[in-house]
Amino acid sequence: MKILVCISSVPDTTSKINFTADKSAFDKNGIQWVINPLDEFALTKAIKLQESQGATVTVMNVGDAGTEPVIRKALAIGANDAVRVNLDPKDSYSTAKEIASVAQNGGYDLVLCGKESIDYNGGSVPGMVAQLLNQPFVNASVGLDVNGSEATAVREIEGGKETISVKLPAVIAGQKGLVDEKDLIIPNMRGIMSARTKPLQVVEPTSSEVKVQGVSYDSVPPRAAVKMVSPDNLDELVRLLHEEAKVI
Amino acid sequence: MSVFVYAENINGVYKKAAFEAVSYAKAVADQAGTAVTAISVNPTDSSDLLYKYGATNVINIKDEGLKNFSAKAYAQAVSEVADGNIIVFPHTTDASSVAPMLAVMKNFSLITNVLEAPESQSPFQVKRKAFSGKGFMHAKAEGEGVILTVSQNAFGVKENAVSGSEEVKNLSVVNEDTKVISHEQSSGKLDLKEAEVVVSAGRGMKGPENWGMVEDLANTLGAATACSKPVSDIGWRPHTEHVGQTGKAISPNLYIAIGISGAIQHLAGVNSSKTIVVINSDAEAPFFKSADYGVVGDAFQILPALNEKIKAIKG
Ligand SMILES: Cc1cc2nc3c(=O)[nH]c(=O)nc-3n(C[C@H](O)[C@H](O)[C@H](O)COP(=O)(O)OP(=O)(O)OC[C@H]3O[C@@H](n4cnc5c(N)ncnc54)[C@H](O)[C@@H]3O)c2cc1C
User: Fold this and answer.
1) Whether ipTM exceeds 0.90
2) Substitution site in B211, B228, B231, B273 for ligand 1 pocket (most atoms within 8 Å of beta carbon)
3) Fewer Cβ close by (within 10 Å): the C or N end of chain B?
4) pTM above 0.80, yes or no
């Protein structure tokens, strides 16, 4: 079985988000880059399938050369090889097109993604890839088993979960729950050393059609100063919530 | 040309997110001087509920093959009936799975997590949530058609009654790729993303056995319950309650955070709440910087007392 895991390189979760002075772009100054945390669940699931079923795991990223450290980290976690599409992605559609093209050429049985990236929060790439490939799609997946040419996926629904059987090839977008938090793999020295020699293929993009543009960006306005209430005066808190904020 | 909107239902019953999406579509249609057509799959609820928020036409798709959800089959069905160039969805789990597939089918632009009415319609430009609630993006759609998903609790549900009419469309969409094996839904539990009030607790609660007082307060307030990430990692609470950058992003009217430090990753998912109350024993907890109201004290004493006081005014 061949698995393709799509990873996005995103600002570390502790990053303060700033925009350039003209507000036209995200300010990358001083940012540490990490594998999108939701993609890490997908990657770890793929490594588990590699161990239990002898699957091969290819990681891929659409990005410029600056994303290679993050790709190497995915290799250190255990992926067999990697593909980088040499394109600084501008929107979900252009990203999805490149992923679909790599998936198509490589004949993968399963494409695994995180359900959204924590930077632009599109939540759009996995579904677009599925449609471009004309394959079934399961989103918000919190469980996955593969049995021959069929997968059983559990997806989160509002107030519950649903178990689905899916014909492969398919696209599955995962989130926390796909694997346990404690099972996420922290690369060890051997992994890091071997990642250096694993193949990382760079391919040029097939198209650069963009459908959505980020015209400008704003930061979140600060909240008014907090009003502190004494624990001995909870009547005051209730009054504020009732009369001032009008939320109870 | 109509503005189309996908009115999501669960087991035939419209979700609050459906009313919000229709309210949003109505605002878009008013700007454009046109009307709203709502699309629903196998609803049992009356279309009157959608007229109330501004849908002049309701297309009820009847299809036994769509009894179970499949993102692809639903996208196919919506694609067959939505012949306008603006299609609105709520940003729910199901709708945000259908929208990207539909966008590719129709060759439309897709803008997700939309917060406000469009800034302009030609070109189509709208404000959306980005960077896990740490920033906003003004997104412009290229090309003719656009699909939007509206962030829950952002635009709000707005009554705008029109006199409407309903049309039934019988479809038979083929779905051979996926099959639902089992479906578990806990009934009666308030959906976290739809809830107007959320009571949330963190590691400060010390253990799962202490969640009774969190639930009591939530019951009094008619609130949903949530938790911080470590709480769901340790298994004190189900991961479906985990809010934050890697959990759910929510925007209730009132968010009460108890024994939660207010780490940046937690804040990312909750700071678009309209009012934030923080209860923490540590006066230095970072969360106080992002709160509207704060109480420094022991949750184990404050929670029961607060619950009684709120009960009293709720009468
Ligand atoms: C990649 C990544 C992603 C993350 N994503 C998320 C996310 O999505 N959501 C999230 O929540 N976190 C996330 N985190 C974790 C985050 O950084 C914090 O660790 C977490 O939010 C802390 O949870 P907590 O406040 O419940 O626990 P703690 O940090 O342990 O804080 C507990 C708080 O309770 C207070 N307290 C203790 N006893 C009492 C008492 N008796 N009464 C009142 N208060 C009391 C303490 O003063 C303290 O402030 C992420 C971390 C990483 C690295």
Assistant:
1) yes
2) B228
3) C
4) yes
